[in-house]
Write a structure and sequence with these properties.
The chain is α+β, with helices and mostly antiparallel strands. It contains nine helices and four strands. It has one domain: Outer membrane efflux proteins (OEP).
Length: about 500
């Protein structure tokens, strides 16, 4: 069908009116009622994490390691690359909302020779018996699909939601990397603390062994007493290589987290006892979902799936496309752009699949099933978010109590060990009593170092469960240049209740 330009304008106006049509349904956030309160609560007033929460531990080494991870960590770099991929996909999906324009320039040239008889005539014909023609042409064509059923917009909306999901995923990866650096660093410090305890215990045990040997030379201690203390010394000494190995492996793990080879890692672990324990306390459970990038990612993917369902439903309806072309053509280059050389044409077409052996229906069913899958994932992410907070609060509460109890236990064991050693050296106590006192002290000191690490880990887990200071409003939106849309509509925004 051929249309005049006036009729083409009428059809374009109608397209503008109908382009807002959508087959729906609009996206609605699934019901996910948060708990009224957490089962475990802290006595402090609500204090949400800040974006640089790790600075509360007052460890310059940790600050440096996290800064390295944020800049070099390969997982974070890969997540950033996925954001760029999603942005490119969004730009590609939005391109169909504007007309496509194609320009063509060509110049045809033709020479025809006349047929003459005789050899001399042939020579004459080659010189003057021909005709020549030239036809330069410049034109441009425009094509535009009228998005009557919202298929193109739905495809763009799905890509927009995917672009947002990639940003939330990047934040999740970054939070995981940062918390992994913190827990790995604290573990390295804990092994250093346990090494310090083991070396101190070894020195004490060797000192007592020397005293027992002296008593044996004086005839007031037996070979059995010496053997028992030597066994204790050997057991304590045997712990040291394993602790050293574990400490060095944690340093190597820091290299992996900061994007460096093990040989390039230079850190000098200190002690957990020198670090501060910042205060953090969760606010209302209803605010948690605004602070978890993994939950935001799950919902953005659900929004994308909802838009894909709309696009798949729209595919059942005819596709209407308007095309137009215009240009100049002339038999002489000098008159190419003259008024008499103008060419113009316009056409509209509608395409409808009559039979596709169920391909579109299968695609639609697949998108619906994908939505159901992501719906289950979203609900699971919500439950997981509240569970993470509850677990972190529970761990923090009980491990804090456990640490306080072990501090008391170490104080009592230290006093008992001091008394048993003094009595042993004075000859008023047997070796068995001294051995028991030493073992109790050594074990309590080592356990206290492990429990202290658990307390730091619990605090980091709580920071991570609360989103690490992230909020939805912190997320950088896709660049406006990517949101090509001649028919403005509400964008898919994080935490929105309606789809575009």
């Amino acid at each position: 069908m051929t249309l005049s330009f006036s009729r083409l304008g009428t059809h374009a106006g109608l397209a503008l009116i109908l382009a807002g049509c959508s087959l729906g349904p609009d996206y609605r956030r699934p019901d996910a009622a948060p708990p009224i309160a957490y089962r475990q609560t802290l006595p402090e007033a609500p204090i949400w994490p800040t974006p640089d929460w790790w600075r509360g531990f007052a460890s310059p080494d940790l600050d440096r390691l996290i800064a390295d991870a944020e800049g070099i960590n390969n997982n974070i770099a890969a997540a950033a690359a996925r954001v760029r991929q999603a942005d490119a996909q969004l730009q590609s999906a939005g391109a169909g909302l504007l007309p496509g324009i194609t320009g063509t320039a060509k110049d045809s040239w033709q020479r025809s020779y006349s047929r003459v008889s005789g050899r001399s005539g042939l020579i004459t014909g080659l010189k003057s018996g021909y005709t020549e023609s030239r036809a330069p042409q410049v034109d441009a064509s425009v094509s535009y699909e009228i998005d009557l059923w919202g298929r193109v917009r739905a495809t763009r909306d799905a890509a927009l939601a995917t672009a947002l999901a990639s940003r939330f995923d990047q934040q999740t990866v970054a939070l995981t990397a940062v918390t992994s650096v913190a827990t790995t660093w604290f573990t390295a410090l804990s092994y250093e603390d346990r090494l310090s305890v083991a070396r101190r215990n070894l020195a004490d045990a060797e000192q007592i062994l020397a005293a027992i040997r002296a008593r044996a030379e004086a005839g007031i201690a037996s070979e059995l007493d010496i053997a028992q203390q030597e066994a204790l010394v050997s057991g304590v000494r045997a712990q040291i290589p394993g602790l050293q190995s574990n400490a060095e492996q944690q340093i190597n793990a820091l290299g992996l987290l900061t994007g460096r080879l093990p040989e390039d890692i230079r850190v000098d672990p200190g002690t957990l006892n020198a670090l501060s324990l910042p205060v953090v306390s969760p606010g209302l459970p209803s605010d948690l979902l605004l602070r978890r990038p993994d939950v935001a990612n799950a919902e953005a993917q659900l929004q994308s799936a909802s838009a894909n369902i709309r696009a798949a439903r729209a595919a059942f309806y005819p596709q209407i496309e308007i095309t137009g072309s215009g240009g100049w053509q002339s038999t002489a280059l000098a008159t190419l752009f003259g008024p008499t050389s103008i060419l113009a044409s316009a056409a509209a077409s509608a395409t409808q699949t009559i039979f596709d052996n169920g391909a579109k229906a299968a695609t639609f069913a697949q998108e619906q099933a994908r939505y159901d899958e992501l719906l289950a994932d979203y609900r699971q992410a919500v439950i997981q978010a509240f569970t993470d907070v509850e677990n972190a609060l529970t761990q923090w509460r009980y491990v804090s109590e456990q640490e306080a109890l072990y501090i008391q236990a170490v104080a009592v064991a230290q006093r008992a060990s001091d008394i048993a050693r003094a009595q042993l050296l004075a000859g008023t106590s047997d070796i068995v009593t001294a051995l028991q006192a030493q073992n109790t002290l050594f074990n309590d000191l080592d356990t206290l170092a492990q429990v202290r690490l658990q307390r730091f880990d619990a605090l980091v887990a709580l920071y991570k469960a609360l989103g690490g200071g992230w909020t939805v409003t912190d997320t950088e939106q896709p660049a406006p240049s990517l949101l090509v849309n001649p028919f403005p509509a509400a964008a898919i925004l994080p935490r929105s209740t309606k789809a575009p």
